[in-house]
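#onboarding

Welcome to the new folks! Below is a worked example of what a typical request in this channel looks like: someone posts a single protein sequence, and someone else replies with the predicted structure as tokens. Don't worry about understanding the tokens yet, we'll cover that in week two.

Example request:
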Amino acid sequence: MKTAVGSYQAKTKLPELLRQVQAGKSFTITNRGDAIADLVPSVSKTSRNKADSIEKIKALMKTDPIRGVDVKALINAGRK
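Example response:
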């Protein structure tokens, strides 16, 4: 959920807002109550985090596989 922030507040507290955006929070900047811009985390950072997570999962699966679990059966059961 995006938090509304007035343009003056956004200008005066930009460093603080950027730290919060870096942590994953999103803001809508308003001017006299009208939304004019969104301040959101960079897509490239999000994509990089997802790619890193996928690689970590793949590495874990190679080193410590789940024994006795039929993953395909679980997937098919979830589709019913």
